[in-house]
Design goal:
single chain, alpha/beta, 5-stranded parallel sheet, binds adenosine monophosphate, binds zinc ion
């Protein structure tokens, strides 16, 4: 039995897929105006684990995702510039050039993290018609009205607004910042834009389309209502995203989709917690955004980061530190040493496999599952080949590519190999003082040497 925490009901619930053995899964995709940061990537790793756990349990996963290439403003409310236009100005390119560049980079980050690409991906700019259709229905049903700057969703017509976060409208109103009320025509400060017009701040907005209300561009939330319905139908099984989407983006998706079609959007809502950096919020204004490329520059592999994410439950915050990443790197190295390329034994370790599955099926308790993995790896009462067999099975969920990842191979410069040889000679002569001295010289060249039963082992020194 598979159980997940449903943000909507605030309860752990059993998964009951609408289509029997197939699960419809929708993931809010990236806003492709800049590199994804490792916080974003943590959320996509969580969603990938979910995808893999469903498959591990025999379900076929129909995984859909949008690409936000228009309409996501700098503020999640109706404030600020379109992020794509910010990116375009920054780099002197067109918004669509920016969008395609960072979409490509996003998918290459996912591939390096061994994340299974959703089988259905649709861009906001390529689903404008479907978005307009929903806005038309909302207008016909009296949920939408036209202001000077935009067509808005009238939240007073949707009494259940805010049911996802559990936040009462009155509380939200008190929390609403003044600048959100940019359009005096808004009936309620929390009414949100479905379609922006080319006026005021947006009069020079580069991307725009005709609509029954005038030339303009869609708001951010409507794209997910339209794309998820188009790709998966309504309702579908599971909708995911980061916790920051609960209060506004997903709340608004629910309001739009339910108001238009009188049916729930999704049955289960799952949200991944934040990645923090040095215990604080990661953000552009904090100046502490890290990308996958920056981790790679310091000698880490993307899968080191993936391993690090597996160590925390998706519903708890995870604090990124370089020390924690190094510990993950060392653990992953050890795990890959344990999975040689030779063909594994036919039989695995049945008990460990059972425990592993109960852990992952219990609201994706991957940290617990990882504990079971290590217990099994270190269990010398089990034949090595059986342990390898189970480990490779577990890797279908962990996604660490253990069948192919070998302890990270390095090519040594001539000076370093000469020192390694000299150190071996010193050790053969039991001249340990000399051997320690050479170890330091090797470190100066950027390598770390350790002594194992199989001889000297060399790793690239990681600096942070
Ligand atoms: P965006 O590209 O801004 O639309 O965000 C992509 C995904 O990353 C969304 O699911 C966000 O909820 C998620 N996200 C944003 N910041 C963080 C963070 N610090 N930690 C984890 N997930 C995040
Ligand atoms: Zn979304």
């Amino acid at each position: 039995m598979l159980k997940f925490y449903n943000t909507f009901s605030r309860k752990i619930e059993e998964l009951r897929p609408l289509k029997g053995s197939q699960v419809g899964l929708y993931t809010c995709g990236p806003t492709v105006y800049d590199f994804a940061h490792i916080g974003n990537l943590r959320t996509y790793i969580f969603e990938d684990i979910l995808h893999r756990v469903l498959e591990y349990n025999g379900y076929k996963v129909d995984h859909a995702m949008n690409i936000t290439d228009v309409g996501h403003l700098v503020g999640d409310g109706d404030e600020g510039e379109d992020k794509l236009e910010v990116g375009a100005k920054r780099e002197g390119k067109s918004p669509l050039e920016i969008a395609r560049k960072y979409e490509e980079k996003f998918f290459s980050d996912l591939a390096e993290l061994n994340i299974i690409k959703p089988n259905q991906v649709l861009r906001a700019t390529e689903s404008i018609e479907a978005q307009i259709e929903i806005i038309k229905i909302l207008e016909e049903k009296g949920f939408a009205y036209k202001g000077k700057q935009a067509v808005y969703f009238d939240i007073s017509k949707f009494p259940d607004y805010g049911k996802l976060s559990g936040q009462k409208l009155s509380e939200k109103m008190t929390g609403a910042r003044k600048e959100i009320v940019i359009d005096k025509d808004k009936k309620h400060p929390q009414d949100f834009a479905l379609w922006f017009f080319l006026t005021g701040r947006y009069q020079n907005h580069i991307l725009h389309w005709p609509s029954p209300w005038g030339e303009g561009f869609p708001g951010w939330h409507i794209e997910c209502s339209a794309i998820s319905r188009k790709l998966l139908g309504q309702p579908f099984d599971i909708h995911t995203g980061g916790v920051d989407h609960i209060g506004t983006h997903h709340t608004n998706e629910i309001a739009q989709s339910e108001a238009a079609f009188g049916a729930p959007l999704a049955n289960l809502w799952m949200h991944g917690e934040f990645l923090l950096i040095d215990s604080g919020r990661m953000g552009k204004s904090e100046g502490n955004l890290l990308t996958l490329d920056e981790l790679k520059k310091r000698g880490f592999s993307p899968l080191d980061f993936r391993y690090m994410c597996l160590q925390a439950h998706y519903r708890t915050q995870l604090n990124f530190t370089w020390e924690a990443l190094l510990a993950a790197h060392n653990a992953l190295d050890r795990l890959s040493e344990f999975s040689p390329a030779e063909k594994p034994h036919q039989v695995g370790c049945a008990e460990y496999e059972q425990e592993f599955q109960s852990a992952i099926n219990d609201d994706l308790n991957v940290p617990q599952a990882l504990g079971i993995v290590w217990e099994m790896v270190d269990d010398s009462a089990m034949p090595v080949s059986a342990r390898i067999n189970s480990l490779l099975k577990f890797d279908k969920v962990l996604g660490l590519d253990l069948a192919n990842t070998k302890p990270q191979e390095i090519i040594l410069p001539v000076e370093a190999s000469a020192l390694i040889n000299a150190r071996q000679l010193a050790r053969d002569k039991k001249d340990f003082a000399k051997s320690d001295e050479i170890r330091l010289q090797i470190e100066d060249l950027g390598y770390v040497v350790s002594d194992t039963p199989g001889g000297q082992k060399i790793r690239k020194k990681i600096t942070f």
